[in-house]
Amino acid sequence: MMSAFYLPLGDDTFRSTTHTVGPWGPDSQHLGPPSALLVRSLLATGRSSLSRVTFEVLGPVPVADLTVSTSVERPGRSVELLSATLSAAGRVVLTARAWHIVGSDTTAVAGGDPSPMAPPSTATPMEVPDYWSGGYLAAVEWLSVSGGIFTPGDAQVWARPRVAVVDGFEPTPLERLFSVVDSASGVSSRVDIRKWYAINTDLTVHLHRQPVGEWVGMDARTTIGPDGVGLATSVVHDVEGPVGTTAQALFVRER
C-alpha cells in the first residue's frame, strides 16, 4: 500500500491514492487530505504558522491527479493573507484563504483555554462497522474518549494519521491537524450516513497556538436545524491542551 495520501508528480501536481477515499463513494475524497495538501502548499510559501484557514468546497474532490496553486493576497510585516486553490482537470474544486500573523512573545498574558481533553492513553479504539472500511477511515488511527463516528451525538475523539500527506515527506503537526479536523462533523454526526447526507460546504479553523506532536483531539458537537442546515463545531486539542476551534456548515438531506 502507498504510504501517503498523495504522490508528488512535479509542477505542483499530486496523484491521489486510495487513502483519500471518503464515505460518499469510491471516486470522491474525504476533505481531510486535500485540506492538508493546501495547508502544506501555504506553508511552502515560507510561513511557519497560520492563525485562521477557511476552505470553500466548490465540488467533490475526485480521487485523481490534482494541481495546487498559491498566492499572497495581502503581504505585510505583521499580518498576511494567503490563498491556495486545488484543481482537477482544470476545474477548481477547493479553495483556501489563510491569515498568517507574525509571532511575538505574549506568554505574560496567555490564557483562557478551555479544559484539556483526557489524553490518548486513556482512550479506546473506535470500532469500525463493515459497511465503511478502508480508504481515509483506515488511513487514520481513531481513539474515543466519548462517542465517535458511529455513535450519534457529541464526541471527544483523538485521531492520528497513519500515512504522510505527500509521499517521501514527513508531515508537520499542522499538516496532521488539517488531515483530520474536517472529521469533527463526522465524529459528532447525529444521522446515519447510510440514510442521510450531512456534507459540509466549508471548513474554518482558528488556531491560537500552533500544534505539536502526532495526535489531534476533537471535542465536537453537531446541531441540525429544521430546514436542512446543520452546524458542526469543535475545540481542537493536541497532547498539551486546546489549540483552536473549527466550524462547518452542513447540507443535510435524506438520501
TrEMBL record:
Limits of the Acyl-CoA thioesterase-like C-terminal domain: 120-252
Top-level taxon: Bacteria
SUPFAM superfamilies given in the database record: Thioesterase/thiol ester dehydrase-isomerase
Q: Which Gene3D superfamilies match?
A: Acyl-CoA thioesterase, double hotdog domain
Q: Which InterPro entries is this protein grouped with?
A: ACOT8-like_C, Acyl-CoA_hotdog, HotDog_dom_sf, TesB_ACOT8-like_N
Q: Locate the Acyl-CoA thioesterase-like N-terminal HotDog domain: which residues?
A: 22-100
A Pfam entry, by short name: 4HBT_3
Could you identify this protein by its name?
Thioesterase family protein
Q: Which organism is it from?
A: Lentzea alba
Task: List the taxonomic lineage.
Answer: Bacteria, Bacillati, Actinomycetota, Actinomycetes, Pseudonocardiales
